[in-house]
Design brief:
- By secondary structure, this protein is an alpha+beta fold.
- It has 2 domains: 2-132 and 250-256, Gcn5-related N-acetyltransferase (GNAT) (Aminopeptidase), CATH 3.40.630; 133-240, Aminopeptidase (3-Layer(aba) Sandwich).
- 29% of the residues lie in helices and 32% in strands.
- Helix 1 (11-22) crosses helix 2, helix 2 runs antiparallel to helix 6 and helix 5 crosses helix 6 (175-188).
- The two termini are 29 Å apart.
Length: 276
């Protein structure tokens, strides 16, 4: 058993493992490896000379209500080969990721379990419920005036996002992470948008649905109306840190690697924009 940083020569098996684990289309997989991947951003477990588990990581610091940044790494594409599941390989890889990233100054790990039942799995491996979210679904858009919707790049989106979330415990995004998200949106026909004067929305689309992965705006109903007009005849699912009567969703999890006295999220912080 070998736990290590990936190597360039691992690329074919990493792509194959991704496809087997998540069923994504080749274009989506190629986008990750072409736009974000470097060997040190992927950790692997090798058994009998073959890579059998992997996880990528993004630099995504926590930001306290007072604006204090705490180094954190977001684990993405945690995968085990189908023939090796149930053998504890993913747990060993998560432990290795914690040690390896902790030695590099990260104070915690975060992740978004792909399915509700995986919250239990990550909980058994040291992760705590750390981030809540609200979501709404629309069969038809709100009948309200629309707000302006302008396509922006990842850098501008990041600036808008941080201004909107000032004073809220949340997860921030490094420029390369936002550039990756911009590309993912473009693959689906969606995009990153400025909403109104200083709001923002991250939009992915399919043939039948508009998936607003994050909406931060003064007038969310007007923003939804504008998004629906841009992508007509589709249902909408919208994620946002609403504080109304919506059901709160235990969305993402956190595993501390070191003391974090500055962190004041207390299980109710905002992650929102995930690569799920």
């Amino acid at each position: 058993m070998v736990l290590r940083v990936s190597e360039q020569g691992d690329l074919p098996v990493l792509k194959q493992l991704w496809k087997l684990s998540f069923g994504d289309e080749g274009e989506y997989i190629e986008h990750f490896f072409a736009s974000y991947f470097t060997p040190e951003r992927m950790l692997v477990l090798e058994r009998d000379g073959q890579v059998r588990a992997m996880t990528a990581w993004f630099d995504m610091p926590l930001v306290s209500a007072a604006g204090k940044r705490i180094p954190a790494a977001y684990l993405y594409a945690v995968a085990t080969h189908p023939d090796c599941r149930g053998q504890g390989l993913a747990g060993q890889l998560l432990d290795f990721a914690g040690r390896w990233l902790g030695e590099r100054g990260f104070a915690c790990l975060t992740t978004v379990p792909a399915r509700p039942d995986l919250h239990e799995f990550f909980g058994k491996n040291g992760f705590l419920e750390g981030f809540i979210l609200s979501r709404r679904e629309y069969d038809r858009p709100p009948e309200v005036p629309r707000v302006p919707l302008v396509c922006v790049d990842g850098a501008e989106y990041g600036r808008l996002r941080e201004r909107r979330l000032a004073g809220t415990p949340h997860v921030a995004y490094a420029p390369e992470g936002l550039a990756y998200q911009q590309g993912v949106c473009a693959l689906s026909g969606g995009g990153l948008y400025r909403v109104g004067k200083d709001g923002c929305a991250c939009v992915e689309v399919s043939q039948t649905q508009v998936f607003v992965k994050e909406l931060l705006a003064d007038d969310p109903e007007g923003a939804v109306s504008a998004i629906a007009a841009r992508y007509p005849r589709r249902q909408l699912q919208v994620r946002a840190p609403w504080k109304g009567q919506e059901e709160r969703w235990q969305f993402a999890m956190l595993r501390p690697l070191a003391p974090m006295p500055e962190w004041d999220g207390e299980g109710t912080a905002y992650l929102g924009l995930a690569y799920d």
